[in-house]
Amino acid sequence: MTTTGTIPVFKLYGETRHWPTPDLLHCESIPERSALHDWHIRPHRHADLVHLLHISRGHVDLELEGSLQPLAAPVVIVVPSMSIHGFRFSPDVDGHIITLARPLVEHLAETASSAGPLLHHAGFHALRDPGTERRIATLVTQIDEEYRQPAAGRARLLEALTQALVVQLARLQGVSGQGARAAGPQHDRSQQHLENYQALIEAQFRRQPSVEQFATQLGMSSAHLNTLCRRLADRSALQLLHERLLLEAKRQLTYTNMTISQIADGLGFSEPAYFTRFFKRNTGHSPRDFRLRQHASEATKRDTPGQAS
């Protein structure tokens, strides 16, 4: 675990491991993870992940941007990137946590105008209307089921279900006026610079600009950009670019029939051999072995009903 100041920066929910899937979202039940931590997830933040929590039973003491809020089910919690948050769940808690990777967050913000404000502001929504609670619970259950069981069109359906969930939450926020309470202070200038850099990565990663080129676009030196990334995201500027390249490579190896050469070319590598070395250095597997392992894993899941990812 590493820290920025006194607040840990985690790669995923309460952990230090890297993003564990080629999917752009991760879904699990709250008890799956929280029971391992004695129902207490200490305050931390993420550089490029957004959490959506749906609590259907029990209660949680939510620590969000310095405030403590006791919440009872049913409730939805939205935790954007860079928001300091922690949870103390009751042992009888039930519900799910859906974690969205930044590329999906940006795509949702582009395709659904209401998604941007929702996914970039921390807060919570009590689900007082039974009809609204039923619709949200149904969508969360469908996302969880689709995430756990590979099937044709899975990635597209997960995206559509997530978009529907975000629209429902945005409607809820609109009905309740300000909606998400306890949003905390505005991002400071450094955080805005990091968000701008992440947006540039998303738009340009396939061309693999140099850190110096990115820094020039941001109006700062490469040394300043690296310092900012290490302080806020616990990674260098180049590591953030490489993580996005790696995620896209995993997705294409898993979900397309493109050749290794085609994938390498599409991701800005001048030679397939360079791409293979990059991929193996970061995953421990060659692109070909990774693809075979993914396909074997999916075949096993299809032959084992109910097995989780």
Automatic annotation (TrEMBL):
SMART domains the UniProt entry points to: HTH_ARAC
Keywords in alphabetical order: Activator, DNA-binding, Transcription, Transcription regulation
CDD domains, sorted: cupin_HpaA-like_N (cd06999)
GO molecular function, one term: sequence-specific DNA binding
A Pfam family recorded for this sequence: HTH_18
PROSITE patterns: HTH_ARAC_FAMILY_2 (PS01124)
Record has Transcription as a keyword: yes
UniProt name for this protein: AraC family transcriptional activator of pobA
Annotated organism of origin: Halomonas campaniensis
Start and end residues of each stretch annotated as Disordered: 286-309
Ranges where the HTH araC/xylS-type domain occurs: 195-293
Domain of life of the organism encoding this protein: Bacteria
